[in-house]
């Protein structure tokens, strides 16, 4: 796992600008603390930078940027290609000889033998890379199928810039950042930045499963929009989903479970290859327990497992994880998170995520990564299981309550209005009276019921999905332009289309961003067996009725796990990585919250609607509604603005209305509120 950066300039650009590659790569030291390197060709106008976290082949033979054997290709690469060893014999048969045992060498040889696009189709793994073809003077930028590894692309005064994180692009002296208020509005609706957008104008993320090929002369007339138009797919999630649902697997239950067991074992085994210590994140839920089960089944000694718990009992999963760890006999480490630790880490969040990011589980994920890094350099996680096998409450809620969504719109509006008037206490009382099964109770809470009510009012499926995944109904951005709509393939049912939206959007824009930044900030490599391309393709060949049944998702995965773990140890209500943020905002974080939500400050900044934010905060304080999700998103924007301003970026970064931002009050140390 590493950090990469690069610069490609036109002939009209001063070649001395290439020297900025050192500063760009230096900002990524946390992604690769073991070594670093740069490669420049001033005549061609290209510079590549790299920071290395050594995982496989710790010798200098794995140093990057790396040249191919014939020295025509130069690559800076972030990630892991897990099947590199199986590709090696075929390349050796073609005459390739290798200096070391790194996947980087294998990739370069495959590019030489098969061409860039055909070679990518043979790789199984997570990667983002810049490959310079010296003969044809073409820069190829590539990203893995699921978008596991990030790759930002920007234009600045005749230079194309790319990097693993935005901070490297900001280190290029000529880059002048300006806030994109449309991207900001979308982030505040859902807590994360859609992958096709960026907080800075003039920057975009290379989409998953795509590549971009650029020559220096192309930059003379290029714009960000024209570059986007030249991006081409080498793999398509939409095509995989559509083909899988069109040709579902015809297997009996036992055969299906055996096939899934084998696929997951293979995916886990590949991700256990490392020349450094490795372990796993363990919450005690279905996904992480499955990964740990398959790791321990293929290990001759106890694997290392790590979990994080909370002092608030209703959010704490540490006891469940501990019981699972004892069953498998893992070497288990547990950390209990307190509000004091949250207070201490919050000032770091804007620098770690670079863009406003408001999945509150970013805090425990970051601290869990730091805990694990004290013992291991690689950690496997269960991320992707919910997206592959239908594990979110909106998936089985949609399946169970489909008849309600078919009611006439007038009736749906009446039901929605009644639900929205209920207080959290009333909802708890209703759940008690109805004696709901335990697995339904987490979904039957104030926040989810309010989302469900708004979804009932929706006029179409896309709006229904937007309502089920958004934080609130009150727009707080002064320039709230319309959100993007997803391009969903013609799948056979609404649930499968929801799962597709989650995999194409939420997974890439939230889950994988959270995991990448948190682990990389700790110089830890995170690996996700559920996002193996074979597992993803297998999951899309399962009809919705096979994945979701009787109000429960992930049915095939549950049956596989029963082969390794007693059902009593994992069959419990889904918690996810929930955080008691609502209680913290009105308790230990209240001083910090009220400072960042100060009305005068917000009005000076000119980006957000002060009155609506104050109403949201007062409603949360009163206990009438849980507005913690919306408030956390606003607070992350405010903290990010503080961080950006304090980094001495030009005031023009904030657009024409931000002239008074420099006089806004500075955030005090959060330790004082711990």
From TrEMBL:
Residues 651-666 have a biased composition (Polar residues). Residues 651-674 are annotated as: Disordered. CDD domains: Asn_synthase_B_C (cd01991), AsnB (cd00712). The active site is at 2 (for gatase activity). InterPro entries: Asn_synth_AEB, Asn_synthase, ASN_synthetase/amidase, AsnB_N, GATase_2_dom, Ntn_hydrolases_N, Rossmann-like_a/b/a_fold. GO terms for molecular function: asparagine synthase (glutamine-hydrolyzing) activity; ATP binding. GO terms for cellular component: cytosol. The record marks 383 as: Important for beta-aspartyl-AMP intermediate formation. This is asparagine synthase (glutamine-hydrolyzing). It comes from Bradyrhizobium lablabi.
């Amino acid at each position: 796992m590493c950090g990469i950066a690069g610069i490609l300039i036109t002939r009209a650009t001063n070649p001395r600008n290439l020297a900025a590659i050192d500063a760009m790569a230096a900002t990524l030291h946390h992604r690769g603390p073991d070594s670093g390197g740069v490669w420049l060709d001033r005549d061609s106008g290209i510079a590549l930078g790299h920071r290395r976290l050594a995982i496989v082949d710790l010798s200098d033979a794995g140093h990057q940027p790396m040249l191919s054997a014939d020295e025509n290709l130069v690559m800076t690469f972030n990630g892991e290609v897990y099947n590199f060893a199986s590709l090696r014999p075929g390349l050796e048969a073609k005459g390739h000889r290798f200096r070391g045992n790194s996947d980087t060498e294998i990739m370069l040889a495959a590019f030489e033998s098969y061409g860039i696009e055909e070679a990518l189709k043979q790789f199984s793994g997570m990667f983002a890379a810049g490959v310079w073809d010296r003969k044809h003077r073409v820069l190829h930028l590539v990203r893995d199928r699921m978008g596991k590894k990030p790759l930002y692309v920007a234009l600045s005064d005749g230079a194309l810039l790319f990097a693993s994180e935005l901070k490297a692009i900001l280190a290029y002296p000529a880059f002048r950042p300006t806030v994109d208020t449309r991207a900001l509005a979308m982030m505040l609706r859902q807590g994360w930045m859609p992958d096709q957008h960026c907080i800075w104008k003039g920057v975009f993320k290379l989409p998953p499963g795509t590549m971009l090929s650029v020559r220096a002369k192309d930059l003379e007339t290029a714009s960000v929009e024209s570059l986007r138009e030249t991006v081409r797919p080498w793999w398509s999630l939409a095509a995989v989903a559509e083909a899988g649902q069109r040709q579902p697997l015809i297997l009996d239950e036992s055969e299906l479970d055996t096939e899934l067991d084998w696929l997951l074992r293979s995916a886990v085994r590949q991700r256990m290859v490392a020349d450094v210590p490795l372990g796993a994140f363990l919450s005690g839920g279905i996904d992480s327990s499955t990964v740990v089960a398959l790791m321990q089944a293929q290990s001759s000694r106890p694997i290392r497992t790590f979990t994080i718990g909370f002092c608030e009992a209703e959010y704490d999963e540490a006891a469940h994880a501990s019981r699972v760890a004892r069953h498998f006999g893992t070497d288990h480490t547990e950390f209990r998170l307190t509000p004091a630790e949250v207070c201490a880490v919050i000032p770091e969040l804007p620098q770690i995520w670079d863009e406003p990011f408001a999945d509150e589980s970013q805090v425990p994920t970051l601290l869990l990564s730091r805990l694990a890094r004290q013992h291991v350099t690689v950690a496997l996680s269960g991320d992707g299981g919910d997206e592959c096998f239908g594990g979110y409450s909106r998936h089985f809620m949609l399946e169970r309550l489909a008849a309600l969504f078919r009611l006439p719109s007038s009736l749906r509006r009446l039901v929605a209005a009644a639900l929205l008037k209920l207080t959290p206490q009333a909802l708890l009382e209703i759940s008690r009276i109805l004696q709901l099964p335990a697995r339904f109770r987490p979904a039957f809470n104030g926040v989810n019921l309010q989302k469900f009510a708004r979804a009932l009012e929706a006029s179409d499926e896309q709006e229904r999905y937007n309502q089920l995944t958004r934080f609130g109904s009150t727009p707080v951005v002064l320039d709230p332009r319309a959100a993007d709509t997803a391009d969903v393939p013609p799948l056979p049912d609404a649930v499968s289309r929801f799962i597709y939206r989650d995999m194409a959007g939420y997974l890439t824009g939230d889950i994988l961003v959270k995991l990448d930044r948190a682990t990389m900030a700790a110089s830890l490599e995170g690996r996700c067996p559920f996002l193996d391309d074979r597992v993803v393709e297998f999951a899309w060949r399962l009809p919705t009725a096979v994945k979701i049944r009787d109000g429960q998702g992930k049915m095939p995965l549950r049956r596989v796990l029963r082969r390794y773990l007693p059902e009593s140890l994992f069959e419990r209500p889904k918690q996810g990585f929930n955080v008691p943020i609502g209680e913290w905002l009105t308790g230990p974080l209240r001083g910090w919250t009220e400072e960042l939500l100060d009305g005068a400050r917000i009005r000076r900044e000119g980006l957000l609607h002060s009155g609506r934010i104050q109403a949201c905060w007062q409603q949360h304080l009163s206990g009438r509604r849980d507005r913690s999700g919306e408030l956390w998103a606003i607070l992350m924007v405010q903290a990010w603005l503080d961080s950006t301003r304090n980094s001495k970026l030009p005031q023009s970064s904030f657009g024409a209305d931000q002239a008074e931002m420099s006089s806004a009050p500075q955030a005090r140390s959060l330790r004082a509120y711990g």
